[in-house]
C-alpha cells in the first residue's frame, strides 16, 4: 500500500526516499551510532534509551555478548571479555607485547602477524572483535530507522596508520556494513562543531579518547573543512591514565606487579573510578585487597603529567606543520571522554592561550559529525542547502626503502588526499631483472624506525646495465587514507601493483573464513542476502544512470549512444523483477561498462562547467 | 591530449605573482566538483576517475601555492626539462648557506629558542626577497640563467626551513 508522504521544503525529494546511512564512532572505550533524522543528526539509542555502547565483547561457549553487561563481566571472566580492542587493531604481536604487558589476554599467533586472542570460542582477531561491536550498532540502526542501510561512515583516529585503517575497514566488511568513507575523528568533530556554531576560520580539535590522541588544525570556510595539519599518538589515551594510577596503587600497596588477569582487571577498574572521581573531587579513597589509601588530585596530575606533556608536544608540532601562528587559532574544541580531566583542559588552555570549548558533548560529537557526512555521501540533500566538503590529509609520511636501509619519502605527512605521486628508481647491478619494493610509513630516516606496510617484487625487468632501467613507483592514497602502490619499468612496460594489505592485516584467507563463519552463524540465509545485495546494487545503478541521463544525456550523448544505454537499463530492470542473482550481477556490470565513457565525459564537463564562461587558457602540458 | 597546465586548471595566466586568497578560493570551488565524496554513490569507474582528478587538482594546487615549486614549474613550461638534482655553480650563495647552517648548529648546541625565532624571521625575509627577485626576471628569456639560479636558491632555502623545523622539534623534547 502506498503511503502519502509529505516532504518539507528542502527535505527528501520525492519520489526518491531518503537513503539510510549512519555514522559510527568505533571507540576504544565506547562506541556510538548516529543518523540524520528529520534534518537533525543525533545518536541512536538502544531499547533502554542508552546511546553509548561500551566497546566490550564477551565470548560465551554458544553466544556473544556486547556492551555494558559484557563490560561488567571483565573482572570475573577476563580471558573471554575483550575491552579496548581498538588498541590492538592493525598491530603486530610484537607491538602488543611492547604496549600491553597489562592486557590480561592469552595471545595466539594466526596466519598473519596479527595477535589473536584465545577465547572459549577459539582464537579471535581484533578485527572480528571489532566487527561484533559494529554488528550490534548496525542492528540497532536498522531497527531504529526501519530499513537496510546504504552504508556507514566509520571514524578512525586521524593518526591511525594504513594498517590500522585497513583493519577497521575489514571489521566493517565482516559486520555486513558498506563503508562509505573512513573519516578522521577530529575532522568529524569539526564538522559537527562547525555546522552547529556556524564557525569560520582556524580551529584546533584536541581529541583525547580512551586509547588514542589526535590533534587537528583545520580551516573552516563556507562549508569547506580543510585540514591543515594533524598529529597525535595512536597509543595515548585515558587507558594510560588508568594504567598510571594502577601502577601507583601496586607501588603503594607493595604488591607484586605480576597479577592474575582477574586482579589486573579489577585494579584497572578501581584506577579508572578514581580518575573519574577526581574530575570533581580534590581527593578520592581507594582500596585494593587489604590496602586502603587516598589519591589527591595533585598526586594524580603528577602521575599523568608525562602523558599530558606528550600530547602538548604533538599540538605544537601540528601547529608548526599547519603554517599558521598559534594566535591565529580562533577556537580550540575538546573532544573525547579524557578531556574531562581538569588538568588536560588547563594544559591545553595554557598552550593555546584561550579557554578550550567544552560545551559540546565530548562523547557524541564524533558520531554526529560522521552521521552528517554519511547522509551527504548517501546522496541526501542537506536542509540548509550548503554542500559539505572535507579535505583531509595523511598523518604520516609514506615512502620506500632505498640503499643503506634508509627511508625515502614519496609523500610527506600532512599532504591533502586524494594524492598520487611517482618516484623513479633504477637498477644497481648489471643484468638485474627484479626489484624489491618495500613500502614504509613514518617520519624517521632509518627503516627500522618506520612501520613496514608491505613488500612486493617487480619481476621481468629486461636485463640492462646498472642504472639503465627506469622504474617508476606510484603511490596513490584515496579519500579513506588508504594506500595502493604500483611499480612499472618504463622501457618494457612490465608492471606490478598491490593494494597495500600490510604485514599486520588479515590475510585474504582469514577474511574468507571469517565471512563464511559469520554467514553460518546468521543461519544460512546467505543466498537470500547475496541476492538482495545484487538487487540493491542493480537498482542503485539504474537510479544513478537515469539521473545522469536526465541531467546530461541531451548534452553529452548522441541519439545512438543514448539508445544503447537505455536498452541496457531496460534489460536490467526486467531482470530485477526476477530472482536470478547471477544474471542481475552480469547485467549490472554490462550497464556499468556501457556507461563508462558517459561517466568520464560527465566528470570532465563538471570541471569545464566550473570554468565555463571564463578565458580558458589552452596550454597543454 | 595532455592535462591542461596547472595555471589553466585554475583559470589563471601563467605568472609568478599570484593572489593566494583567490587561488585558495578557486581550489575549493574545483575540489567541490571533483572530490570523490561527490561520487560515493556512483559506479566504480566514476569513483576511480574522481580519485584521479582530485589527485591531479591537489597536485596542481600544491605546486602553485609553493613559491619554489611554482618557480620551477614556470621555468619548465618555457624551456627544457629541469633536472631535479644538479651541481649548483653559485659559490657566493653556497658559502652563505654554509654559514647559515653553522649558525643553526650553534643554536642547537645552545638550545637557543629565541635565537631560532630570530633565525626564522631572517630566513623568511630572505625568501621573500628571492621571490621578488624571481618575479622580476623569470619571463625574460635573456635572464633565464639568472632565473634558474634563483629557483635553485629557493629550493635551498626550503630545505633550510625544513631543517629549522626539525631543529624546533628536537628542542621541544
TrEMBL record, chain A:
UniProt superkingdom: Bacteria
This protein's record includes keyword Ribosomal protein: no
Matching SUPFAM superfamilies: Actin-like ATPase domain (SSF53067), Heat shock protein 70kD (HSP70), C-terminal subdomain (SSF100934), Heat shock protein 70kD (HSP70), peptide-binding domain (SSF100920)
Gene Ontology MF annotations: ATP binding; ATP hydrolysis activity; ATP-dependent protein folding chaperone; unfolded protein binding
Keywords: ATP-binding, Chaperone, Nucleotide-binding
Gene Ontology biological process terms from the UniProt entry: iron-sulfur cluster assembly
HAMAP family: HscA (MF_00679)
Family classification: Belongs to the heat shock protein 70 family.
Function: Chaperone involved in the maturation of iron-sulfur cluster-containing proteins. Has a low intrinsic ATPase activity which is markedly stimulated by HscB.
Protein name from the UniProt record: Chaperone protein HscA homolog
Source organism (scientific name): Pseudomonas sediminis
Automatic annotation (TrEMBL), chain B:
One example of a Gene Ontology biological process annotation: protein folding
PROSITE patterns: DNAJ_2
Keyword RNA-binding: no
Signal sequence bounds: none
InterPro entries linked: DnaJ_domain (IPR001623), HscB (IPR004640), HscB_C_sf (IPR036386), HscB_oligo_C (IPR009073), J_dom_sf (IPR036869)
Domain spans labelled J: 5-77
Keyword Chaperone: yes
Gene3D superfamilies registered for this protein in UniProt: DnaJ domain, HscB, C-terminal domain
Keyword line: Chaperone
Any one Gene Ontology molecular-function term assigned to this protein's record: ATPase activator activity
NCBIfam families: hscB (TIGR00714), PRK00294.1 (NF001420)
Protein family: Belongs to the HscB family.
Protein name, entry field: Co-chaperone protein HscB homolog
UniProt organism field: Pseudomonas sediminis
Amino acid at each position: 500500500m502506498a503511503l502519502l508522504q509529505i516532504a518539507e521544503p528542502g527535505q527528501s525529494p520525492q519520489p526518491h526516499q531518503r537513503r539510510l546511512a549512519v555514522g559510527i564512532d568505533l571507540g576504544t572505550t565506547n562506541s556510538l551510532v548516529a543518523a540524520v533524522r528529520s534534518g537533525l543528526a543525533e545518536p541512536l539509542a538502544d531499547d533502554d534509551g542508552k546511546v553509548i555502547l561500551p566497546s566490550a565483547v564477551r565470548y560465551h561457549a554458544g553466544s556473544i555478548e556486547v556492551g555494558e553487561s559484557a563490560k561488567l563481566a571483565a573482572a570475573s571472566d577476563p580471558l573471554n571479555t575483550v575491552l579496548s580492542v581498538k588498541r590492538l587493531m592493525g598491530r603486530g604481536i610484537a607491538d602488543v607485547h611492547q604496549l600491553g604487558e597489562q592486557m590480561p589476554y592469552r595471545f595466539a599467533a594466526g596466519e598473519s602477524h596479527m595477535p589473536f586472542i584465545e577465547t572459549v570460542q577459539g582464537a579471535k582477531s581484533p578485527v572480528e572483535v571489532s566487527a561484533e561491536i559494529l554488528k550490534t550498532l548496525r542492528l540497532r540502526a536498522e531497527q531504529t530507522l526501519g530499513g537496510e542501510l546504504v552504508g556507514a561512515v566509520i571514524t578512525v583516529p586521524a593518526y591511525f596508520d594504513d594498517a590500522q585503517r585497513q583493519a577497521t575497514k575489514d571489521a566493517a566488511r565482516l559486520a555486513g556494513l558498506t563503508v562509505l568513507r573512513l573519516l578522521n575523528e577530529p575532522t568529524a568533530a569539526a564538522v559537527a562543531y562547525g555546522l552547529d556554531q556556524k564557525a569560520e576560520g582556524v580551529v584546533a580539535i584536541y581529541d583525547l579518547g580512551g586509547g588514542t590522541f589526535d590533534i587537528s588544525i583545520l580551516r573552516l570556510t563556507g562549508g569547506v573543512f580543510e585540514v591543515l595539519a594533524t598529529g597525535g599518538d595512536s597509543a595515548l589515551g585515558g587507558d594510560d591514565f588508568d594504567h598510571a594510577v594502577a601502577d601507583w596503587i601496586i607501588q603503594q600497596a607493595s604488591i607484586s606487579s605480576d597479577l592474575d588477569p582477574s586482579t589486573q582487571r579489577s585494579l584497572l577498574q578501581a584506577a579508572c573510578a578514581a580518575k573519574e572521581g577526581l574530575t570533581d573531587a580534590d581527593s578520592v579513597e581507594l582500596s585494593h585487597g587489604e590496602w586502603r589509601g587516598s589519591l589527591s588530585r595533585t598526586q594524580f596530575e603528577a602521575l599523568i603529567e608525562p602523558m599530558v606533556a606528550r600530547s602538548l608536544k604533538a599540538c605544537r608540532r601540528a601547529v608548526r606543520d599547519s603554517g599558521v601562528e598559534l594566535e591565529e587559532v580562533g577556537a580550540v574544541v575538546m573532544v573525547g571522554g579524557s578531556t574531562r580531566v581538569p588538568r588536560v583542559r588547563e594544559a591545553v588552555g595554557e598552550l593555546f592561550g584561550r579557554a578550550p570549548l567544552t560545551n559540546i558533548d565530548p562523547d557524541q560529537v564524533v558520531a554526529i559529525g560522521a552521521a552528517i557526512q554519511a547522509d551527504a555521501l548517501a546522496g541526501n540533500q542537506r536542509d540548509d542547502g550548503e554542500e559539505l566538503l572535507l579535505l583531509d590529509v595523511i598523518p604520516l609520511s609514506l615512502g620506500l626503502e632505498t640503499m643503506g636501509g634508509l627511508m625515502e619519502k614519496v609523500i610527506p605527512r600532512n599532504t591533502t588526499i586524494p594524492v598520487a605521486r611517482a618516484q623513479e628508481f633504477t637498477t644497481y647491478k648489471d643484468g638485474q631483472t627484479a626489484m624489491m619494493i618495500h613500502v614504509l610509513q613514518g617520519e624517521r630516516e632509518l627503516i627500522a624506525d618506520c612501520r613496514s606496510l608491505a613488500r612486493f617484487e617487480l619481476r621481468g625487468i629486461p636485463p640492462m646495465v646498472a642504472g639503465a632501467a627506469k622504474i617508476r613507483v606510484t603511490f596513490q592514497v584515496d579519500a579513506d587514507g588508504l594506500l595502493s602502490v604500483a611499480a612499472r619499468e618504463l622501457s618494457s612496460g612490465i608492471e606490478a601493483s598491490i593494494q597495500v594489505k600490510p604485514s599486520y592485516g588479515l590475510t585474504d584467507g582469514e577474511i574468507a573464513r571469517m565471512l563464511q563463519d559469520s554467514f553460518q552463524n546468521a543461519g544460512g540465509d546467505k543466498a537470500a542476502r547475496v541476492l538482495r545485495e545484487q538487487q540493491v546494487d542493480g537498482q542503485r545503478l539504474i537510479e544513478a544512470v537515469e539521473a545522469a541521463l536526465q541531467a546530461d544525456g541531451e548534452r553529452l550523448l548522441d541519439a545512438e549512444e543514448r539508445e544503447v544505454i537505455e536498452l541496457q537499463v531496460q534489460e536490467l530492470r526486467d531482470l530485477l523483477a526476477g530472482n536470478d542473482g547471477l544474471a542481475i550481477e552480469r547485467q549490472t556490470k554490462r550497464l556499468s561498462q556501457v556507461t563508462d565513457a558517459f561517466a568520464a565525459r560527465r566528470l570532465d564537463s563538471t570541471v569545464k562547467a566550473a570554468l565555463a564562461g571564463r578565458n580558458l587558457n589552452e596550454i597543454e602540458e | 591530449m595532455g592535462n591542461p597546465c596547472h595555471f589553466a586548471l585554475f583559470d589563471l595566466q601563467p605568472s609568478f605573482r599570484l593572489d593566494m586568497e583567490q587561488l585558495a578560493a578557486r581550489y575549493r570551488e574545483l575540489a567541490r566538483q571533483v572530490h570523490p565524496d561527490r561520487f560515493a554513490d556512483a559506479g566504480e569507474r566514476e569513483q576511480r576517475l574522481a580519485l584521479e582528478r582530485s589527485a591531479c587538482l591537489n597536485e596542481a594546487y600544491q605546486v602553485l601555492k609553493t613559491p619554489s615549486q611554482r618557480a620551477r614549474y614556470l621555468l619548465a613550461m618555457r624551456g627544457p626539462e629541469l633536472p631535479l638534482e644538479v651541481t649548483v655553480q653559485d659559490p657566493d650563495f653556497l658559502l652563505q648557506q654554509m654559514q647559515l647552517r653553522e649558525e643553526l648548529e650553534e643554536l642547537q648546541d645552545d638550545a637557543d629558542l629565541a635565537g631560532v625565532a630570530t633565525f626564522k624571521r631572517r630566513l623568511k625575509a630572505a625568501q621573500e626577497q628571492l621571490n621578488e627577485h624571481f618575479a622580476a626576471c623569470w619571463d625574460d628569456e635573456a635572464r633565464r640563467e639568472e632565473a634558474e639560479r634563483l629557483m635553485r636558491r629557493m629550493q635551498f632555502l626550503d630545505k633550510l626551513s625544513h631543517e629549522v623545523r626539525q631543529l624546533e622539534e628536537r628542542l621541544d623534547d
